[in-house]
Amino acid sequence: MTRTILTAARVEALKPRKTTRDIRDAKLRGFSVRVSPAASYVKFVRAMPRRAR
Length: 53
Known about the structure:
It is a single chain. By secondary structure, this protein is mostly beta strands. It has one domain. The chain contains 1 helix and 4 strands; from the N terminus they run E-H-E-E-E. The chain has one helix at residues 8-13; strands at 2-4, 21-25, 31-35, 41-45. The two termini are 20 Å apart.
């Protein structure tokens, strides 16, 4: 996964590739954008319970 600061302009500039990829935000921990080959963009947050760490 690639880490970068995600802004509205940066997300709009992401181009689809042959495979699905996840881009993680460098500032907001757990926030990511998934870009699929069909050019769909999904924003999601990954969270873990504190005891799982």
